[in-house]
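User: Thanks for the earlier help. One more: Acetyl-CoA carboxylase biotin carboxyl carrier protein subunit. Can you show the sequence and predicted structure together?

Assistant: Of course, both are below.
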Amino acid sequence: MDLDKIKALLDYMGRSRVQEMRVTQDGTTVVIRNAPVHVPASMSSTMESTGTAVALDAGVKEAAVETKTIVRAPAPGIVHQAASPGAPALAQVGAQVEAGYGLCVLEAMKVFTTVPAPLSGAIKRVFFEDGAEVAAGDPLVEIC
């Protein structure tokens, strides 16, 4: 099984609620399991963490471990990429951010709230378009 296929499987598992997947191809078996990572109670409403481990069956060797955090909308509203009109986007794919850095601005009932990064890391994916409506719990940004 080639590395691109394994990466695609890891990506799928990270986006789904599937707990375990076993795929066999050309005599190689890959087992992928989603395991929750400890999240402090104060952050659990706005983020989701998953650790994804891959084990190859030829002697069950650990192949890769990837940890990512998905920051979710704390409330319904309109999400903005920048702190003010015309300003550059706060969360740009590939950018390194520190814990507490503002990722986006959520507007609810004319109140603007900055959604902070719960931890330091690189921004892997931005799930929203500027000015989009989001519901509480919708994914906003993925940090690795």
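User: Great, one quick takeaway?

Assistant: Residues 3-15 form the longest helix (13 residues).
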